[in-house]
Amino acid sequence: MLFKIGIIGGTGLEDPNIFENSREVVVETPFGKPSDALLEGEVDGVPCVLLSRHGRKHGVPPTSVNFRANLWALMQQGVSVILATATSGSLKEEITPGSLVFLDSFIDRTFKREITFHDGREGNPAKGVCHIPSHPAYNEKLRQASSEFVFLINNLFILLILISCAEQLKYKYFKSGTVVCIEGPRYSSKAESNVFRSWNADVINMTVCPEVYLAKELGIPFATTAIITDYDCWREGDEVSVELVAERMVENAYKAKNLFLLAIKKIKEQDWTEEIKQAKIVARNAVMLDKDVLIEHLTVPQ
């Protein structure tokens, strides 16, 4: 099986020059069109596929992102694991703008999105009803990458690698964090922001859901790095604005680019066979159909 890395991102990651032998690929899915054409290429000999979540011209608002088509398109192209970035606001004083937060849980406050592949519609390749577990939310091996870890199960691994890369690059980071995902496109009111703080959430964003659990339904190890641009609106005199976020997104773009380029090199050094197999098993076991019913995209790779 060819190992291929999927990347979901925005500013700084849509540059075709980050890949060798880059080419655009236009795809269709059973769930419609993804946000933009995919960009395929290689990093240090590793095949990669990049998708801009909002489109390369940032023309798709959070509510209108076709998350199902985006994830399915990456799966169709054969990605083995997925790394994602998410521009986010901080809900805690110590999580300063410019920081990276390696998310490990979420609170979903969205309400207008297609939240499962298994919707019961006729002809849908995602058969049955799926009750995917949401803990662990992200893959721990991709989160941290430590030589002391050998093998955990399923979504317990991706962010280890990202954490080790942030340390190597000397970026300020937080190795865990809970994100509140709001519907958008508006920013929070001050009352809402303070409610989220009272829940002990760390950051706020508009796109991590349903992306994270759709990836789990497909059995693809997945990790999201929150890139902090602002303090939302809870902090007196430091309210979020489009101008502020746009300015800091440009400042932070190189961090995301450097982080992922280094992470890709580390990811390729790992054996992901068992990790990918376990992710598929968890996804298939979450579907309420007899085990002898074939769900093609959840077939355990041999």
Automatic annotation (TrEMBL):
Transmembrane segments: none
Record keyword Glycosyltransferase present: yes
Compartments where found: Cytoplasm; Nucleus
Sequence ranges assigned to domain Nucleoside phosphorylase in this UniProt record: 4-261
Keyword Nucleus: yes
Binding-site list for phosphate: 11, 53-54, 207
Catalyzed reaction equations: S-methyl-5'-thioadenosine + phosphate = 5-(methylsulfanyl)-alpha-D-ribose 1-phosphate + adenine
Positions of the record's site feature: Important for substrate specificity: 188, 242
Entry's family note: Belongs to the PNP/MTAP phosphorylase family. MTAP subfamily.
PANTHER family: S-METHYL-5'-THIOADENOSINE PHOSPHORYLASE
Name of the protein in its database record: S-methyl-5'-thioadenosine phosphorylase
Native source organism of the sequence: Enterobius vermicularis (Human pinworm)
The organism's taxonomic lineage, starting at the top: Eukaryota, Metazoa, Ecdysozoa, Nematoda, Chromadorea
